[in-house]
Amino acid sequence: QVQLVESGGGLVQAGGSLRLSCAASGGASGAYDMAWFRQVPGKSREFVAGVSRSGESASYVARFTVSRDNVENTLYLQMNTLKPEDTAVYYCAAGWGSWATNRYDYWGQGTQVTVSS
Known about the structure:
By secondary structure, this protein is mostly beta strands. The protein has one helix spanning 98-101, and strands spanning 3-7, 10-13, 18-25, 33-39, 46-51, 57-59, 64-69, 74-79, 88-95, 106-107, 111-116. The strands form 2 sheets. Strands 2, 4, 5, 6, 9, 10 and 11 form a 7-stranded mixed β-sheet that branches. It has a 4-stranded antiparallel β-sheet with strand order 1-3-8-7, with no helix packed on it.
């Protein structure tokens, strides 16, 4: 069982930056794929960025940089030049074999990011 706790969300003006953190516990560090998703009301959750257990990374938003610290067992998302359309609840996810399927087994509670214009 893996527990995920996100932090770092908040209210920021357009053009600003935020850094989200996801602290994982309950599993061997580095043993699973991890990712960030986001969701707005009325829409399905969408993949934002992630790092596989092998260290492969991907980001669907060029302004965002994902990184992973296997010593701290923490996933980060550096979000720069934020836009109002980035407003969403951001979720951290983890799983085994998830990188290929985009299906994750464990989810955090989410952290709200609000970007004002």
